[in-house]
Amino acid sequence: MVPLTQGNSWVIGRGKDCTIVLADRWSSRRHAMVQRLDTEDYYLIDLGSRNGCVLNGQTIQVPTLLKTGDRFIIGKTTLEFRTDEAVSTMPPETPTALQPLVLIIQPPGIQVQIWQELLRSQGLQVVVESGKINSRRIISDFISVMHRNPDILMLDSQLETPDISKLLEWVKATYPKLRSFIIDRYDNHISPMQRQWATQYGAIDWLPALPDDNLTMYGAEVAAQLKRVLKALGRSNLEQEKLAVSLLNLQLATNDDLPSQLLSEYINQPPSLPQ
């Protein structure tokens, strides 16, 4: 139990300078903050963390009001907020079935950032690992901590420890019900032979690299890739408005020179996306 008595803000993460320090390698160094306003209202704020904050089963995108009994997940640690100004650490729990869980193993870069933003726009919980350590260990540790398989596993095509073919063989043998995709960082076109190779090794598909600039222009192409993942989850429809906002956020993040007139037009009339 950590009383929130001194100051008006409390940072949560695995960094030693945080108010609440988590021994959780899935959390960021400065992952989130609880902020108290003059009105005595408390808000949970994501500090740009890699794996996001899940409040009562939903990933938050903006500062969100906390109520007594609210539970939020940071990394793999569940915290509970109480109005007596106490936050108590709870054992890790399985995420709600309403929010499917995606594990991405891909080195840091624009591609994984785009995938993370797109998947979250559709209400999915996303955990990202860089693949710097053995990918088998990442998957095994993840399942051990979460007490469940990820709903979708997305694997970078250039993984080396082990290489992608050996990793897919291991996944198929060890977790036969685990649904996986290969995702590319470089190639915007995947040949039929590559896609066939992926399915032979147990993956659902091999997805090409996403456009890393002019995302609003390629909205239909991005949506088509996202729909492949949603289809594997049994979902047939995109949340188009949320995807449009996500594309705009990504466009802003990758292009600071986007004309203000274009931004205004985009906000007032988002691009049409495939059904």
TrEMBL record:
Transmembrane segments: none annotated. It comes from the Bacteria. Coiled coil: none annotated. Residues 10-60 form the FHA domain. Pfam families: FHA (PF00498). This is Phosphopeptide-binding protein. It comes from Parathermosynechococcus lividus PCC 6715. The lineage of its organism: Bacteria, Bacillati, Cyanobacteriota, Cyanophyceae, Acaryochloridales.
